[in-house]
Amino acid sequence: MPPQDGADEPSARAPLLPPPAPRRAAARLHPLPLIVAAAFVASFRFVFLAPAPSYYQSLFLSLGSNDTAATHLRALTQRPHVAGTRANSLTAAYVHDALSSHSFPTRLTPYSVLLSYPAHRSLSLTASGRDTVHFALEQEIYPGDPYAAVSAEAVPTFLAYAASGSVTAEVVYANYGRAEDFAYLAARGVNITGKVAVARYGKVFRGDIVRNARDAGAAAAVIYNDAKDYAAGNAFPDGPWMPPTGVQVGSTFKGVGDPTTPMWASSEGCQRLSIAEAMASDDMPGIPALPVSGMDGEAILQLIGGDVAPEDWQGGAGAPAYRLGPGPAVLNLTYIGNETMATIQNVISVIEGKEEPERYVILGNHRDAWTFGGVDPNSGTAALLELAQRLSELQKKGWRPRRTIILCNWDAEEYALIGSTEWVEENRAMLTSRTVAYLNVDSAVFGRGFYASATPQLDELLKEASKQVQNPDNRTESLYDLWMASNTSPLTMQSIIACMMTSYGWRSLEIPCSRGMSQRQACGGLLLCGCQMRRSYPSTTAIMPQSLRME
Hints:
Keywords: Glycoprotein. The chain is an alpha/beta fold. The chain has helices at residues 38-42, 44-47, 54-62, 66-76, 86-100, 148-151, 179-187, 206-215, 227-230, 275-279, 294-301, 378-396, 413-416, 418-426, 428-434, 459-467, 479-486, 493-504, 525-528; strands spanning 106-126, 133-134, 159-160, 165-173, 196-200, 220-224, 250-251, 289-292, 330-351, 356-366, 403-410, 435-440, 453-454, 470-471, 474-478, 508-510.
């Protein structure tokens, strides 16, 4: 599916930020807790707020309501809005107008980047003595779904940047598709060369699953949601777990940013790799691949023969015995992708600091979604807009932040953190010398607990900030109490990314909240590590890029 007609074209960069003012004396900070994304705001106390009496804190808490955030969320999720489409361009305009309405200098920053859409997909299963099964490759629309009428606008289920091709071959079961899983198959003498590898989500990045299959010699890959990992209880619409027909879509590109401009910005007139060169990169999966539902995945596994898979490769209660293969079942998989240059748009808004205007605290959230984005990312976008509204009201009462706040609404995050990466690459020198911290909220509501992660420099900030915010479900305790009670903070991709960012010197904070708060790591955090921020701050003689100056 190519970008829809009507997406805005790139235009000349409009200036945005003011030139740095002479540095004035630093001042103490105060808290700004926000119920919709409480820790996202509470951390401001320790990071960037100007000195202010408790009046401003009380005023902030009295402003706005959940209804405001709900209004933004409904507006942003009316239609599917994958990056590069007209629908997503309209969401950019909505965010731009919402921020501009507060008199914040706000700009759309467009980039032309390589995106991937499905042009054709098919998958069928053949086994001796059985009728051929043709998989629909569609997600179920449930009776009473208020969005059923516009669900047809969603991009069909696919894996972005998968190679185009058609493969007919026997099936091999590869567990979670990790390197060690393919090594186990090789040790057991299971021939993977030229076969279709079927693996389940749950342990590694989907792009690594496909890449590992490619490196093991597979001709194609299929990834499914195993009920053992995604259906531990009642499924939607009767519960929170993924239904049997649910399909996980996503990108398989291992890099970050526009694949045609690795390590440099996709600015107008820049040098680029050709689409063919970009798709031939080792960061691309290199073979055809499709995502399927748990129901379809189980149908395939039922017809695989060979040795019985190990116990830890098996499914949950009621699942058939999983075997390694190859065959005798044969899959016919066809995927034709449409890789095309498309326009994406970040929205950048600025609140100039009073004491240290040349130092920046960046608040980020992305806007694009594979479908409607009700949780990821637009619950976070709604929280960002609610925050902006409250800060605007404080400004009307004379408040100014200590440091300059940059509100960033990223585009094409789902593909490869593209919008945030390109903006950072374009403004690398300025951000390297002036950015103090980056705070990110992707999904403001994600489960019932409170979860957050940060680089070590911000660990104590995060703990102290969470103690300043009341748990909205229990007024006798703080978010910190709720967080400690949840006690579920394993080493995950979030914490790994945080460690990566620390090694580059960036201070970054992730705010996952809960029922009315919560989130997971994503968005611009990963790309920001590439700026290698120094821990000392140079004088105000540093050059401000033209794209960020104010008229």
